[in-house]
Specification:
The chain contains four helices and six strands. By secondary structure, it is an alpha+beta fold. The protein has a domain of about 70 residues: 2-Layer Sandwich (Alpha-Beta Plaits).
């Protein structure tokens, strides 16, 4: 039954919760292609602005329609406030992102 739920999740773009984990309808291949610190799931985002408001470094900003985006990636400290407070689970840390060795700390 679980395998069927996972397939349904990927086909219909719904979230499935099990063991406290949200299964995102995104394939690992798509995550590998994303180069930024955060991944935004815009199809889930209701544009409430909480993530932009809570960001302590103002790395996030909102477009005119309220859609959040990473305005300045160098300011993002990966503090986790945005993805932890998002009521729609529409933000996650990119699991493949690594700090450059030359980046200022």
């Amino acid at each position: 039954m679980k395998q069927n739920q996972n397939n349904d999740c990927q086909q219909t773009n719904h979230r499935v919760f099990g063991s406290g984990m949200a299964i995102h309808p995104i394939t690992p291949k798509r995550i590998e292609q994303h180069k930024g610190k955060l991944i935004f799931f815009y199809e889930w985002c209701k544009k409430c602005g909480i993530c932009v408001y809570i960001c302590p470094t103002k790395a996030l900003a909102a477009k005119k329609d309220g859609t959040p985006y990473m305005a300045d990636e160098s300011k993002c400290t990966l503090c986790s406030l945005c993805w932890r407070i998002c009521p729609d689970f529409a933000i996650m840390k990119n699991p493949n992102w690594e700090e450059s060795k030359d980046a200022p700390k």
